[in-house]
Amino acid sequence: xxxxxxxxxxxxxxxxxxxxxxxxxxxxTEPGTTPAQAFERSIAKLNLxxxxxxxxxxxxxxxxxxxxxxxxxxxxxxxPIIVKDAEGKTNIGPEHNVRTNLAEAExxxxxxxxxxxxxxxxxxxxxxLQMARALGDSGLAKVLSRVPDIYEVKxxxxxxxxxxxxxxFDPGHYEFTKAAEAVVALVEGGGDAAAVVDRAVKIPTxxxxxxxxxxxxxxx
Length: 220
Hints:
Layout (H helix, E strand, L loop, with lengths): L1 E2 L2 E2 L3 H18 L6 H16 L5 E2 L1 E5 L6 E7 L4 E4 L5 E3 L9 H9 L3 E3 L2 E3 L6 E2 L5 E2 L12 E6 L5 E5 L11 H13 L4 H10 L8 E5 L5
Helix pairs in contact: 1-2
């Protein structure tokens, strides 16, 4: 499962959605390769293919093996991954928005960037970005990180996974936790991906929306 949220144009998000599955499959099928290694290598290759583009994109992906109880997650940017884990707890993945993640903002500053009004800049007369990590965005290359956060979450019979763009929650990232709780409650009540999108459209969040919802069962 993967979601790519483009900004400044759709070139990178479209290219990533086509190329990433191919790159990941090539890596995960190599003998002895773990899902985490497959994510690390395939995202590094995708970065090489997209880093010269002016538009950019987030990347949020989850791999769940056909037989297994662990979800491996990779995040580059601020498209949320939410997993109901084996203990029934809600696990919200990391996000790299400089407005809400002060550690990310400080890391970007050390790379030569500066933050103002919730946006990261490389120059005083250039474009800004809410994120400190992304694909593409060649104009911000010197201040962005291209390295994803990769982590694992244990799954149980009642687990579910939500992978979505931030437009499904709170694009401004001012009340993300509150919005995430509402989306989780919707899915726990039986809502599917279409329901998550419909909720965002009705509010409206004012952003485009993509959502994937996957449920596990004891049989799976």
